[in-house]
């Protein structure tokens, strides 16, 4: 069965439509974005791998050399104090950063798979609903993790409501998009049954 093709976006002139670009299929904007996501995925995979290696090395390598006896300033103004850099602090920082980048690596993996279906011209697949839900869940975990980490480190100010508004809004938008894709997949399935 052949699915109907979508018309490219364009500027409507009085007597004809001038196509600007195609949004779906091979050679479209979706395929260009898929390439950008592939590059970002590889770079993020390298960064996450390096962070994980540094985390494992920090477990076994003794804290000597330039970091031994070093401190950092925690707080501001009269409440500022010097805190020694310890193995626990380094492990926490590397672990939290690795988890942060790992979460976004999972998000990019799902986005790449969604854009693969866009490039094929078939976005309303049931697996895209699952992928969008996974993106929303991962984004929720990353957002909550950042808020918890900010609460654990006194030198980082707690996020206010306005700072949490964008991540919360993003999570809600992703879950709504998942439901839109679910409805699109349902309608597509019904259309296939009637043909």
From TrEMBL:
<dbReference type="InterPro" id="IPR021354">
    <property type="entry name" value="DUF2975"/>
</dbReference>
<feature type="transmembrane region" description="Helical">
    <location>
        <begin position="85"/>
        <end position="108"/>
    </location>
</feature>
<feature type="transmembrane region" description="Helical">
    <location>
        <begin position="39"/>
        <end position="65"/>
    </location>
</feature>
<dbReference type="Pfam" id="PF11188">
    <property type="entry name" value="DUF2975"/>
</dbReference>
<keyword id="KW-1133">Transmembrane helix</keyword>
<feature type="transmembrane region" description="Helical">
    <location>
        <begin position="165"/>
        <end position="181"/>
    </location>
</feature>
<keyword id="KW-0472">Membrane</keyword>
<keyword id="KW-0812">Transmembrane</keyword>
<protein>
    <recommendedName>
        <fullName>DUF2975 domain-containing protein</fullName>
    </recommendedName>
</protein>
<feature type="transmembrane region" description="Helical">
    <location>
        <begin position="135"/>
        <end position="153"/>
    </location>
</feature>
